[in-house]
What does this fold into?
Amino acid sequence: LSMFPYPSGRLHMGHVRNYTIGDVIARYHRMRGESVLQPMGFDAFGLPAENAAIQNQISPARWTEANIATMRAQLDRLGFGYDWRRELVTSRPGYYRFEQWLFTELYRKGLAYREKASVNWDPVDQTVLANEQVIDGRGWRSGAPVERREIEQWFVRITAYAEELLSGLDTLTGWPEEVKRMQRNWIGRSNGIEIDFERLDGKGVIRVFTTRADTLCGVTSLALAPEHPIVQDLLPHHAAMRAFVASMRQRETREAALETQEKRG
It folds into this structure.
């Protein structure tokens, strides 16, 4: 199963590379006499499709379906061995009705909730970007400078299953250790304590989580992230702080870049 493409209009060389690799693997196992299922589909929802439809003065549904038809024909011409009888298109009711049902079940059981969080906002595509989609402070698709915004959004309470997910990784055979390490990091379980530090201005406390309670006696200062609510409260009164926070919002957000960036404060 290769990752379903987003129907942006035409295949590019990245698509050809990925799907060639998947097809070679499928053909290898098929030639060994194994029963192989290789489906294909289209991850078709998204604001970029709506924006493109507005730009081209066509409904998003017609725009998306036309792109799917084009890309399906291109995949066929490349000779890939897909079973199109099992095609999935996420923007069609036959598929997303089950997504809606699943979300409703998560909400009923208290596993889906709304909360404010800091996100990468693309002002042109009018959508949230993952850290890996921000290149040199700009959106990977639009090229617009990315803004950091506090937006209320939906979350799924993955933490309720953290222990089960972690223990399940130990049962996987044949998985690269690097992939399992990435999954453990994504789950992100840490064992530690929370401690409250009183603010010098008397306006409440700053709650800190630490995995090293034995080092607390040596604490001399606390550092707050640029998007922390306390920092936001101070910005109207400190021009230098506003300039610093603005510069931090333009920094790389990709994980690989964050590991090598110089710490500033």
Q: What stands out?
A: The two ends are 45 Å apart (CA to CA). The longest helix spans residues 13-31. The domain at 13-96 is CATH 3.40.50.620 (Rossmann fold).
